[in-house]
Amino acid sequence: MSKIKSNIDTILNEIKKAHESSHFMRLPIPKLVAVSKKQEDYKILEALKFGHRYFGENRVQEAQQRWSKKVEIFKNLELRLIGPLQTNKVKQALDIFDIIESVDREKLAKELAGRFNQDVKTRKFYIQVNTGSETQKSGIEPIEADCFIHYCIKDLKLPIVGLMCIPSLDEEASMHFALLKKIAERNNLKELSMGMSGDYKEAIKFGATSVRVGSLIFGERRL
Q1: What's CA 175's distance to the chain center, in Å?
Q2: Pair 218, 50: CB distance under 8 Å
Q3: Contact between 127 and 148 (Cβ < 8 Å)
Q4: Most CB contacts within 10 A, which of 104, 140, 192, 214?
Q5: 22 membership: H or E segment, kind and range
Q6: What angle, rounded to 10 degrees, do the helices at 142-150 and 173-186 form?
Q7: What fold characterizes domain 3-218?
């Protein structure tokens, strides 16, 4: 058996177990988003060959190079942008990603709204919240999240469906997941992208609807 298939099967089983023992067991099982950032292409092809269809990329240019031909070959792909988005890359991003998870500032939201129409591929957006208020991380500050969500949905008419966060490395991840869940509930947002290789099972306990896993599937990234 392929190691990548075995890894995916193991993680999917762990996701199912964590979900069944959570308070959210009546909701759909969280999606496993395979983070393909800087991974060698043969590994991605293996995952595709065995039927995996949810992938997350950090950079627009890398995603274009990797997926422009694959989307014509492999059906039912769901590509997500999970890394920071520069405003000058918005047009390209809207043409390749099904979901953009990293809406994190007013300037970007305005640019997305100005280019969003029925012809682009992107149909859903998440707002990234900087739950740890870390200066080196992207994301809207938690105290500003409610106003920003309202602005994006009501004023810009963007289809915001959920929130995303990346917990601080030196703090309990559960604190960040709980905070993101509270913000989502206040704003009636159903989707939560949270949890990575080291903490995805914890994220599921707090209502994650998708988890982003890279190294546990593909091994360490190439430089």
Answers
A1: 19
A2: no
A3: yes
A4: 192
A5: none
A6: 30
A7: TIM Barrel (3.20.20)
CA distances from 69 to 53, 63, 64, 96, 207 (A): 15, 11, 9, 11, 34
**Can you tell me the distance from the alpha carbon of 113 to that of 87, in angstroms, rounded to the nearest whole number?**
11
Structure tokens at 219: 């091994």
Return the DSSP state at 207: T
Q: Quick one: tokens of 197?
A: 């290789």
Query: What are the residues whose beta carbons fall under 8 Å from the beta carbon of 167, sequence distance 6 or more?
Result: 131, 132, 173, 175, 176, 177, 194, 199
Cβ proximity of 206 and 176 under 8 Å = no
The pLDDT profile of the chain, 223 residues, written as one tens digit per residue, is 589 999 999 999 999 999 999 999 999 999 999 999 889 999 999 999 999 999 999 999 999 999 999 999 998 999 999 999 999 999 999 999 999 999 999 999 999 999 999 999 999 999 999 999 988 889 999 999 999 999 999 999 999 999 999 998 889 999 999 999 999 999 999 999 999 999 999 999 999 999 999 999 998 776 5
Residues listed for the chain: 223
Side-chain-side CA neighbours of residue 156 (13 Å): 25
Contact 137, 159 (CB under 8 A): no
Cα–Cα nearest to 208, from 185, 191, 196, 183: 191
